Amino acid sequence: MAFNHLPAAMHDALGPLSVTPVTHSVPMAKNHRPGRPPESGDSRPSPTMILDRLATGAGRAARITHTEHLPPRSGTHAIWPDRIRPEVISAIEGAGVDHPWAHQATAAEHALDGESVVIATGTASGKSLAYLAPVLSTLLDGSEAPNGRGATALYLAPTKALAADQRRSVKALATPLGNAVRPAVYDGDTPVEEREWVRQYANYVLTNPDMLHRGILPSHPRWASFLRALRYVVIDECHTYRGVFGSHVAQVLRRLRRLCARYGADPVFLLASATAADPAVAAGRLTGLPVVEVSDDASPRGELVFALWEPPLTELHGERGAPVRRTATAETADLLTDLTLQGVRSVAFVRSRRGAELISVIAKERLAEVDRSLPKRVAAYRGGYLPEERRALERALHSGELLGLAATTALELGIDVSGLDSVVVCGYPGTRASLWQQAGRAGRSGQGALAVLVARDDPLDTYLVHHPEALFRQPVESTVLDPDNPYVLAPHLCAAAAELPLTETDIALFGPAVPELLPQLEATKLLRKRPSGWHWTRRERAADLADIRGGGGRPIQIVEEGTGRLLGTVDAAAAHTAVHEGAVHLHQGRTYLVRTLDLEDSVALVEQADPPYSTVARDTTAITVLETDTEIPWGQGRLCYGSVEVTNQVVSFLRRKLITGEVLGETKLDLPPRTLRTRAVWWTVTEDQLDAARINPEILGGALHAAEHASIGLLPLFATCDRWDIGGVSVPLHPDTLLPTVFVYDGHPGGAGFAERAFHTARAWLTATREAIASCECEAGCPSCIQSPKCGNGNDPLHKRGAVRLLTELLRSAPPEAGRATTVKPDLPDSPT
């Protein structure tokens, strides 16, 4: 029997949310009365005062396991390079910036020298101005050219709303420059009648990688004058381009560079990231170019108080009688309610769409008990909302009407918020980089701020709140991406060939895997070789072969059955787990039940309901080893890395009580299986090792299963992933290894680099896994150590002590380093999608 742990089919979409600086805020009243929000016009509370008030109440203080105080920091000024036009400097001074910070001036100097540069400084350190100063100056120079269009620049953001927010900032800054700078957004929300104007006249085009991939590059003849004059490409929030998404974006950028060269342009790339390890290496891998790093942050920073918060144990019992903690969702809703009552401007970051909706609903209900006018001060924001709903929320945020927001990671990316006093992070977001990015949303005007990480009942969260050094004494993770992944590269070669025939000179641009892939693409009749190069052979759009967000297939439309009203969409890959028949779906604070899921027509029919439970899908998984790239001995056992095929099927769903998480029942489902070819790390143990660890056949399955769950939970400490990016299978006797085996695999076709990172850090990774299990205070295993919220086997069997003994024995013979894996080139399927 195999015990499995499947990755989420798809993350929440990076739904757009943009907030411009606002002047309205509701500070703490000097004589604040409990249960009432303060009046405006009083002094802002200190972060320590806010935390003290949150800790007031029975048992509240004991939930804070650690408080980190980051002191304020003063800034270092410089002067702009003399090549920046004086008109641009005057415009910057008119916006209230008298002198640049030293890192801004340094980055601008590199840009003007024609060197690609990555600005990797803290949140609110002025990265936008660092690249805007040289860009605007160059556009102003180009506007004075006697003939032609003049210089152009392209801005790429991971979300549409961030691009829209940046356009507002650019427009405001460039207003004194007159018509010399013409910024325009070009994305899926741009009206058709405006698109031609953007192509012909805009010289600063703001878009996203999706539109570049599907819209601009395939239509490059219509963009010829823009591409011919392209001087700068700005890539904002570049740390978000990781894993499979980052690998796709890397190939999109190589296609852009190829077309620019065709039109005689060689743009300079300017990248910005608040959180990145080895930023020059990551930026170079993303762009394919040498990149200079500017990471010495010279901007001032206000005090940050960062609290780690662990919800208390309840009297309830979960699966297999394990003790249950109060959910992070309920705890975050309480904190958001209290912060709103204090008049503290706050954002609660939530990992899932459903969680954001639920926190908003709970907070609204509790605020209504105090004052019927207060619920309208809190809202939810997530991906999947319709454009008009997004715009309405953005207007409310801009006006200051909203005081508290429960949001998915859309709000994490680069928005500009002033007056924000606190951030609550509901569950570790998967990487230290994301945690610091979210925490940095508060205190953006140099004032002090409070950040609170609320731990989920999860091995990694529990480990972190009791090992604060893993958060505060470690650098952020290295960005993991693999542009040579054949499942990523192949469709982009097809797209590039459709744009311009591929030639021998293009091979170096797209990477070392190209020579092996081209014959396979010819064999599948996707490309045809002619004297002029490799040509796209089909009538369909080649760009449609690559879904750069990794969704795979047409989005499922969520439709209200009685009215036919479209509520939103969900990615096709997530449909089996998110909108199966009987699933509970939350939208704008309303609850719906899914009545029908039609996979052929990509429609889920729902009706409004009010069930007292949530739903969680269950699945089964089998795994086959296709090829072992490398393996090393761990004593008698082996640590391996290679290619696998994973077959998964959603078979049922659980109904859980809201707030407590108590299981009410299980319902069977009949959904088709899905197959994934990917990359995995796995380890085996021998019978002698089992004897040494005192593992008998009765507990072997539970020990392997528990070790698998915990190792998946701890891997995000060592790779830029979260547990929903990866999956696992544990087998007491696997047919391919003929030994007890634990697999951990990437949840993306062709792999995403996470399993390879696990292989290289296996000793440290599995040591942390063993420590997390052994140090948990529960008796036989709980969600804080070995139980998983997405286990396809209902967390059965699990054996906590067996897992500790098994990992102890395995690590006893572990070598210092795991070795070096080679790059995989698996056979392509019939279509490289």
Quick description:
Keywords: ATP-binding, Helicase, Hydrolase, Nucleotide-binding. Residues 21-49 are annotated as: Disordered. With 833 residues, the chain is an alpha/beta fold.
Describe the structure.
With 833 residues, this protein is an alpha/beta fold. It contains 25 helices and 30 strands. The strands form six sheets. Strands 1, 25, 26, 27, 28, 29 and 30 form a seven-stranded antiparallel β-sheet that branches. Strands 2-10-17-16-13-15-14 form a seven-stranded mixed β-sheet, with helices on both faces. It has a seven-stranded parallel β-sheet with strand order 5-6-4-7-8-3-9, sandwiched between helices. A hairpin with a 2-residue loop joins strand 25 and strand 26 (637-657). The radius of gyration is 27 Å and the shape is globular. The two termini are 31 Å apart. The model is unreliable at 1-42 and 818-833 (pLDDT under 50).
User: How many runs of DSSP E, i.e. beta strands?
Assistant: 30
The percent of residues in helical segments reads 25-40%
Q: How is the main sheet built?
A: 7 strands, antiparallel
Structural class: alpha/beta
Cα distance spanning the termini: 31 Å
Q: Over all CA atoms, what is the radius of gyration?
A: 27 Å
Tally of helical runs: 25
Shape assignment? globular
Beta-strand content? 15-25%
User: What is the arithmetic mean of pLDDT?
Assistant: 85
Low-confidence stretches: 1-42, 818-833
Protein name: DEAD/DEAH box helicase
InterPro entries: DEAD/DEAH_box_helicase_dom, Helicase_ATP-bd, Helicase_C-like, Helicase_put_actinobac, HRQ1_WHD, MZB, P-loop_NTPase
Keywords: ATP-binding, Helicase, Hydrolase, Nucleotide-binding
GO molecular function, one term: helicase activity
